Amino acid sequence: MSKNLVIVESPAKAKTIKKYLGKDFEVLASYGHVRDLVPKEGAVDPDRDFAMRYEVIDKNARHVAAIGKALAQADALYLATDPDREGEAISWHLLELLKDKLKDKPVRRVVFHEITQRAIQEAIRQPRDLSMDLVNAQQARRALDYLVGFNLSPLLWKKIRRGLSAGRVQSPALRMIVEREEEIERFKPQEYWTLLADSEKDGQGFSARLALYRGEKIGQFSVTDGHTAKTIEKALLQAAQGRLRVLKVDKKQRKRNPAPPFTTSTLQQEAARKLGFSASRTMRTAQQLYEGVDIGEGSVGLITYMRTDSVNLAQEALDEIRTLIRQRYGAHNLPHQARHFKTKAKNAQEAHEAIRPTSALREPEALKGKLGADQYKLYELIWKRTIACQMIPATLDTVAVDLAVGDESNLFRATGSTIADPGFIAVYQEGLDDAAGEDEESRILPPLAAGEWVLLRGIRSEQHFTEPPPRYSEASLVKALEEYGIGRPSTYAAIISTLLQREYVVLDKRRFVPTDVGRIVNRFLTQHFTQYVDYDFTARLEDALDAVSRGEKDWVPLMGEFWEPFKSLVEDKESSVSRSEVTSETLDEACPKCGKPLAIRLGKRGRFVGCTGYPQCDYTRNLEGEAETEAAAEPEVVEGRNCPKCGSTLLIRSGRYGKFIGCSNYPKCKYIEPLEKPKDTGVTCPECRKGRLIERKSRYGKLFYSCSSYPECKYAVWNPPIDEPCPKCNWPILTLKTTKRRGTEKVCPQKACGYSELVDEAAADVAE
Question: Cis omega before residue 11 (within 30°)?
Fold first, then answer.
């Protein structure tokens, strides 16, 4: 009986597929990529049509050997790596490594957009040839990234600091984050005031905003100081005489349509908003759901392929979704025809589907307890979004009421809405980036009719200031990258991870903040490699790679167009730009010590202001203006204490992460301690039962709580501890966890336990 060898990328997927194909098929995993460029200069040779030198990845050599051994016993080879450019390239690399063992055996390429019995068996029946267009597009991408990295990174080492890197798509992403931070720093708040009337009708209170005063329309900046606001407030109170007249009531009905099913980008955005997942965490969990999870009936693929920019849904999936909506939510929630969405992404791969459950009938509730916590949350999100996209629109009744003060020259306006028919909202509603508090239209107003009077309880003026644009979150950064066409869905997680790993940015309250090094690198690239961090240029290059993947463009001329001017620019900047020019930024300010210009410079501890006359003049200060001259920088002696290790004097020193207490006998004695005494939570360590849990800061400034007897006891938790045993597993402490989605809750820090209980905000404040 013939044996067919099927190669997939992961062992989890191999296990799931094996049970669907039967005894005639052997399924093995390549464990991801099998070859990569040799990690040294010359791996891509521009003089030989960009010929590439590959080598087997060490950790996967034994898997390649196992595949070769199995191929010797097989009659046919099926390459079933992921259905994208990267998967196509992995199949080609395998084929190149297995040439000697293939002989005349047939090689077939199959792709699985979902890991279900029907999809797998159908794909096996409809194999195709390997697509060299897709392979060449991936090779071109890899070669471009290599050439940029191997030429720009050493330049950064020479001009800024060793260990830095520059990437073809990471650099424009860094530019986005830095430019947003600079925009925030330049921002000057503008003061404005609003006037609100607090009214009441039949015991139901509501508020209205001043829209017209003395016949003039009131805009955002019509009232810009408190004195004017109080004058208007006083005049209106006097004119109103304790009541307002309903002048006009406008009632309308509007529809709100559901969002389309998930693409890679929108899944990453929504998982960040609703679940607090990073892009890499989202993709890792989605990969598990796609490859297969044991849910009691063996390993089953629960979602379709998670790297896609299409919003299409297969007809059979639509039929199943509509059947479920009819049965679970009623026929009235089902539109007459299935809803079809149009893909907005450039060059979307329409052959792919959107991310959806492989079976809509597999409801999340039925899988609870069978999936890991992250798997369940993400599957529920995907399932709800998919079902909601095929339901009727939500119907909202909106109302706008004009309330007159005295005559009709002074008007307050109240707006509100009610949900007449929830439609898809009963299942799912899309999250928003940086939502600005309560939406006035979401307020519910009492029944009002033109001509009637309502009670005026008071008029109040409120001071406001305009706010700068928010820093990028993971969700809003992914959205911006997609809008600009920078990178592709499968690269967003890697872009973000690289920026964080290189310490070009840090996350502060889940927002990206550029570091000093990140700013310097961005300034160097935007000033000297302007074209290559230009958003449009990066997007056009992505479009060109897409054209290669469709067979519309040859990859070698594309590489030539990029390489020649890029190489010339690198060589020019290497000789024409000095290190001091890159790492310092001259200020329009003279040194108070010698009169020479001051500059912002980069040191070991970050950016500082220093004299351009250094080393003749040693004047320095920090960016906030505090002097750091040689005299000021002299370490301060800690009075009344000596080093507990060697008895020497203790000093207050400055380091990379701020001030600390250290021994004056350094480096012979390396004793250090924090300058400020850590906050004692009063909670006994549940592990050693000797120390107390104290509040500490991580290297990135994030608070955590660890045992005071560290390093003897290394117990630590991220959330504030409570001296209260878990009622479920009796672990000696609980922690307070606060999220936007669930609020504040008591949580057992033992992951296997899973205990949680909601608490009110007041109780949480007391506990902390």
Answer: no
The DSSP element (H or E) to which 207 belongs, if any, is strand 204-213
Residue 735 makes CB contacts below 8 A (sequence gap 6+) with 717, 718, 719, 720, 721, 722, 746, 747, 748, 749
Dist. CA 563–CA 566, nearest whole Å: 5
Tokens of 19: 């049970």
CA dist 13 and 102 (Å) reads 24
**Catalytic hit among 305, 472, 492, 705:** 305
Region of residue 639 (left: phi > 0; alpha: psi -120 to 50; beta: else)? beta
The β-bridge relationship of strands 734-739 and 721-722 is: antiparallel
For residue 263, give the nearest of 489, 450, 439, 71 by alpha carbon: 489
Tell me: pLDDT of 690 over 90: no
84 phi, psi to nearest 5 deg: -145, 180
Tell whether the model's pLDDT for residue 1 goes beyond 50: no
Kindly report, residue by residue over 97-136, the tens digit of the pLDDT.
998 888 889 999 999 988 888 899 999 999 999 999 999 9
**SS3 readout for 330-343:** CHHHCCCCCCCCCC
Confidence of residue 2 (pLDDT cuts 50, 70, 90): low
Residue 47 per-residue DSSP state? G
Q: Is 192 a catalytic residue?
A: no
CA distances from 591 to 317, 392, 581, 594, 616 (A): 71, 68, 18, 6, 12
Q: Distance between CA atoms of 581 and 579, rounded to whole angstroms? A: 5
What is the DSSP secondary-structure string of 64-91?
HHHHHHHHHH-SEEEE---SSHHHHHHH
For residue 193, which amino acid is it? Answer: W
Angle at which helices 170-186 and 516-528 pack, to 10 degrees?
110
Per-residue pLDDT reduced to its tens digit, 368-385: 989 999 999 999 999 999
Residue type, 158: K
Structure tokens at 227: 């004195």
| Contact predicate 195/209, CB 8 Å | yes
- In the DSSP assignment, the letter for residue 631 is T
For residue 398, give the nearest of 375, 374, 416 by alpha carbon: 416
CB atoms within 10 A of CB 509: 8
Please give the average per-residue pLDDT across 273-299, as a whole number: 90
Q: What is the pLDDT of residues 709-737, one digit of tens each?
A: 887 888 999 999 998 888 888 899 999 88
Q: Environment class of residue 270 by beta-carbon count within 10 Å: exposed (0-12), middle (13-18) or buried (19+)?
A: buried
Burial degree of 516 (CB within 10 A; 0-12, 13-18, 19+) = middle
727 and 748 in contact (C-beta within 8 Å)?
no
H-helix segments, 108-163? 117-125, 132-159
Distance CA(1)–CA(316), nearest Å, equals 35
Tens digit of each residue's pLDDT (9 = 90 or more) over 326-339: 999 999 999 999 99
The pair of three-digit structure tokens given for residue 510, joined into one six-digit string: 């889940």
pLDDT band for position 218 (cuts 50, 70, 90): very high
